[in-house]
Amino acid sequence: MSEQPVPHYPVEGFQITRTAFSVTMGAIMPGLAETRGPSSPHVVALFSMPLPVAKQVCMVLRRQLLDYESKFGVIPLPPEVFVGMGGVAPGDWPLPPQAMRE
Question: What is the rounded distance in angstroms from the CA atom of residue 102 to the CA atom of residue 97?
């Protein structure tokens, strides 16, 4: 049996839903979030995982992003990004050690 290529989707947004036992993340394609609006984004892929796996993914992503920021500088996010993130604030993300010394 031949192996199928893994699809690659450039993503510019996401939606997350949580139940008592799992997390589902929907990936939204570039350009479609603005044209369709927040009530009907064009979700191109869904990833469902149990809560322990979702926590592992977050921990690995956090480590990778903090490592990047410590080497290359803080990844800027415009203030309007935080409006749709359900109470997440800029201070919820720690500055990398290098940025805190400056």
Answer: 9
Distance of CA 41 to CAs 34, 76, 84, Å? 8, 24, 14
Which residue in this structure is represented by tokens 């359900």? 86
Q: Helix, strand or coil for residue 1?
A: coil
pLDDT at position 88 over 90: no
- In 3D, which of 41, 37, 15 has the Cα closest to residue 26? 15
Question: CA angle at residue 77 from 72 to 80, to 5 degrees?
Answer: 175
Distance CA 84, CA 14 (A): 11
pLDDT digits (tens, 9 = 90+) for 38-72: 556 678 888 999 999 999 999 999 999 989 998 99
Whole-prediction pTM value?
Answer: 0.69
